[in-house]
Design a protein that fits this description.
The complex is a heterodimer of chains A (about 80) and B (about 100).
Chain A (H helix, E strand, L loop, with lengths): L1 H22 L3 H26 L3 H26 L2
Chain B lengths: L1 H24 L3 H26 L4 H28 L19
The chains are: A mainly alpha (about 80), B mainly alpha (about 100).
Chain lengths: ~80, ~100
């Protein structure tokens, strides 16, 4: 029961971020929503690894955090100066 | 130890939800950056450390992931905020003062 409540609370956070990602007026709004979504997804991956008792999910969360960090830096640099 | 980890994880989950709510509700890019940085940093940190406390042989790896999130999240959001200021995204209508006008002279 407590698992269902926790995952539904995180799910509402993800749904709100996706709504802002769809309707954001400018490009930086969408980038901020995507960065928030990636951080929530990292925490969700660690929590899923705890629920399923899989140690491998921690590696997946670490690599996902690295890749989204590089992606956010690259998109910010592209918005500021171009390629 | 189990109930302590569960309490810390629940605290972090509530802050993750508040970060998503702030992203949807706040009126401006810069205000959304506040919600998207602070709430999700504290939320992800507490959730991951709480999982490490509940499962003690995973503790060091979860500590590495949490410290990496604590380092990377302000850096990337600072880069996004700087870029959106430089390309001229306007403030919202209710804003009173823009302190960065001082640096343009």
């Amino acid at each position: 029961m407590i698992k269902i409540i926790s995952f539904s609370i995180i799910g509402f956070g993800i749904i709100f971020s996706i709504l802002r990602l769809i309707k954001g007026p400018t490009a930086p709004d969408r980038v901020v929503a995507l960065d928030t979504l990636s951080t929530i997804t990292t925490a969700l991956l660690v929590l899923l690894g705890f629920i399923f008792k899989r140690y491998v999910y921690l590696d997946v969360a670490l690599v996902y955090a690295l890749l989204t960090f590089i992606g956010a830096i690259a998109v910010a640099r592209f918005l500021e100066k171009g390629i | 130890m189990e109930s302590l980890g569960m309490a810390i994880t629940g605290f972090g989950i509530i802050f993750l939800f508040l970060g998503g709510l702030g992203i949807l509700r706040l009126p401006d890019v810069y205000n959304r950056l506040q919600a998207g940085t602070k709430c999700t940093t504290l939320g992800a940190f507490c959730t991951i450390i709480g999982v490490g406390i509940m499962e003690p042989q995973w503790f060091w790896k979860t500590l590495i992931i949490a410290l990496f999130i604590l380092l990377k999240n302000p850096i990337s959001n600072h880069a996004i905020g700087r870029a959106s200021k430089n390309i001229g995204v306007p403030l919202c209508d209710k804003s009173v003062i823009d302190k960065t006008e001082v640096f343009k002279k």
